[in-house]
Amino acid sequence: MTESEIHERFVDTYMHILKYVGDFVSVPTRPYKITFEAYTVMRMIATSDEPLTLVKIAKAQRVSRSAIARQINVLLDLKYIEQTTNTNDRRIKYLSLTPAGVKVEKEITKASEERFHQWVQVYGEKRASDTLRLYQRC
Predict the structure, then answer these.
(1) Which of 19, 56, 73, 80 is most buried per CB count within 10 Å?
(2) pTM over 0.85
(3) Which one, of 11, 27, 3, 30, lies nearest residue 118 by Cα?
């Protein structure tokens, strides 16, 4: 297979498979008016053992601070998260889930896990594990 053919197949795979995966994982977030990326911010806050800031989240997700700021602004507007300013350094703002945010994060997590379970039942656990290993090597 030539490099050009590989490129064509890569683009075709992206358009039909990877976009499908993106759409698939984002379905549980739609009723709450947030993206899957915003949900991952909520999930990080919910599962963190330490207070999180925008900078820590951006580093963990390997994206820019402005990308995380966009997600945080949506979550703040929807009152799913709140910010608490560090009393010693007012530039530092800690993020936490509001009671509504706790509820929404739990509901999305449950729906996402159920949806994923259904997919694994169809796709197969071995194929799912093999696919995950392939993506992790990238």
Answers:
(1) 80
(2) no
(3) 27
Give the lowest-confidence range in 19-23, 47-51, 108-112.
Answer: 19-23
Q: Measured between alpha carbons, how far is residue 52 from residues 14, 38, 46, 104 in Å? A: 33, 14, 10, 19
Cβ atoms of 86 and 76 within 8 Å: the answer is: no
Pairwise CA distance, residues 92 & 53, whole Å: 7
Average pLDDT over residues 22-50: 93
- The rounded distance, in Å, linking the Cα atoms of 22 and 135 is 14
Exposed/middle/buried for 38, CB within 10 Å: 0-12, 13-18, 19+?
buried
Q: How far, rounded to the nearest angstrom, does the alpha carbon of residue 110 sit from its chain's CA centroid? A: 14
